[in-house]
Known about the structure:
Layout: H1 19-30, E1 32-43, H2 49-62, E2 67-72, E3 77-83, H3 87-103, E4 110-119, E5 123-130, E6 135-139, E7 141-142, E8 145-146, H4 148-158
Antiparallel strand pairs: 1-3, 1-4, 2-3, 4-5, 5-6, 7-8
Amino acid sequence: MIFRRRSRGRSNDTSLFALTQAYITLDVRLNARFTGHAATCVKEATGIFNSAVEDVKAFLDASSDISHRVERDRYGYIWFILSMDTIEGVVAAVDAIADTFTEYGFKEQILASVFAFNADKRGRFYLVYNHRSNRFYPFASRDRERDVELEMLIYSILKDELVLEKDRARWYPIWDIPF
């Protein structure tokens, strides 16, 4: 896996890497499996923003370990959609994407990174990482309605494992995740 770093600023998203250990707890306590899919969602900007996008595409193209695609959603956000067998690799790729946008001065343009999981008998849920606050929160929905019970269960399981957003009003739903 090749992830280029610049000498300029870093995103300092060290809490992001805690997900690689918290995943073990999710597996044991909820029988949840990482789906192999994650994405980073970025709000488009002007100026050298396109250079940041091209740099991200270039390092993703250079990695033989990760599959990816780039999509724009109906709100104009750019999604860098990643597929890889290991959560460690996906977390490293998400961190590299965040670093690139941060180094170009576009950290505020990163909406979130989303990691997909499947739990036996509970279905799919996501852990959403807010790059501005460096905190995670759970997002689960069924038929476009939030599954608050599952979200609270995930929160209770991970509260000692991850830096989680405590204010539920900041657990923003991300509908129409493109994977």
